[in-house]
Write a structure and sequence with these properties.
Shape: globular
Oligomer: single chain
Strand order of the largest sheet: 1-4
Length: about 325
């Protein structure tokens, strides 16, 4: 049994890092909004989904005009990433302005229900538009970066099998790293990042210190939504098929990653996302082996959420979060 697990370990780690990078960036949107507003923006998964559809629509339009073949594929990807990020960033700002800002002083349960309502609304809008244009709400993204790279891990240690990696996986991981590093630098090294941290720590005091709280919150939604939209494009390129409901379960898992890392902690969300991706892929590949066929690969979600429950039982603030004492 141990030998079978070790044989697939390099491939599991590569696939887990790819999926974990997606979870990590989406988790950043949850943790940024929660850190400032203490709001769980359950519509963020649907912003990720919207980004995937916008990016795919742009790719299909470019392919129809023959532009993709006329330019390097990486340049086309960068253009689509930028366009999708801007659109989803503006969408996130609009959602905050219309749906969340009027309820900023309302009980948290009301804003939570509103976020769930926005989530369903985005699902239905995207489904309606897609079915109206294509006749089907399940869309296949263009095939890009399909070259296979074989990593000869068996030469490192005989118990390992060789691992395969698509070039799209490598590009996804590299772009994800760039986005995470850029966000970390922005939050910790820039003036606007300092304003975001000040608002997250004490909104009222930050306002007294001449920080424009509304602008900071809008910027937070723009950045989080832009990152989510760009990740949706990368997801579509990597996994091929998208539908209006991909954002729900993936958003829940990204939120799980944010909680696991420590909700409100940006670096914790990154680590939590990667951990969750690796755990899920490990379960998908090895659950049947470890349980002697009792549990199959489809129980990977149960395995991942069970890990979350264990983390929260023994460390409720998450792996990198800090315990907070509520004032009476």
């Amino acid at each position: 049994m141990l030998a079978e697990v070790l044989h697939t370990l390099p491939q599991v780690l590569l696939d887990g890092l790819t999926l974990g990078a997606v979870y990590a960036i989406v988790a950043l949107g949850y943790t940024m909004v929660y850190g400032i507003l203490e709001l769980i923006n359950f519509a963020h998964g649907e912003i990720f989904m919207t980004g995937a559809f916008i990016g795919t629509a742009i790719f299909l339009t470019m392919a129809g005009f023959g532009w993709i073949g006329a330019m390097p594929a990486i340049l086309a990807l960068i253009l689509v990433l930028v366009a999708s990020s801007i659109v989803t960033g503006v969408l996130g700002m609009g959602i905050e302005r219309v749906a969340y800002r009027p309820l900023r002083k309302a009980p948290k349960l009301i804003t939570l229900i509103t976020a769930i309502g926005v989530s369903f609304l985005l699902q239905d809008i995207v489904r309606f538009i897609t079915e109206f244009k294509k006749g089907n709400y399940i869309i296949t993204a263009p095939s890009l970066f399909t070259d296979q790279v074989i990593l000869h891990t068996s030469s490192m240690l005989s118990v390992f099998n060789n691992a395969q990696m698509r070039s799209s996986s490598f590009i996804l991981i590299m772009i994800a790293i760039v986005m995470m590093v850029a966000l970390d630098f922005f939050v910790n090294r820039t003036r606007w990042g300092m304003a975001m941290r000040a608002v997250a720590q004490d909104r009222e005091t930050a306002a007294l210190m001449s920080v424009n709280v509304n602008k900071v919150i809008s910027l937070t939604f723009f950045i989080g939504s832009a990152l989510g939209g760009a990740t949706g494009v990368l997801f579509a390129i990597q996994y091929g098929t998208i539908d209006p409901y991909i954002g729900f379960i993936l958003g829940m898992k990204a939120f799980t990653a944010a909680v696991m890392g420590g909700i409100g902690n940006i670096r914790g969300a990154m680590v939590g996302g990667v951990l969750l991706g690796v755990i899920e892929m490990f379960a998908s590949a090895n659950l049947s082996v470890l349980t002697h066929g009792v549990l199959a690969a489809e129980y990977k979600d149960v395995f991942a959420f069970a890990i979350l429950i264990i983390v929260l039982i023994f460390k409720p603030e998450g792996l990198f979060g800090k315990a907070v004492i509520e004032k009476v």
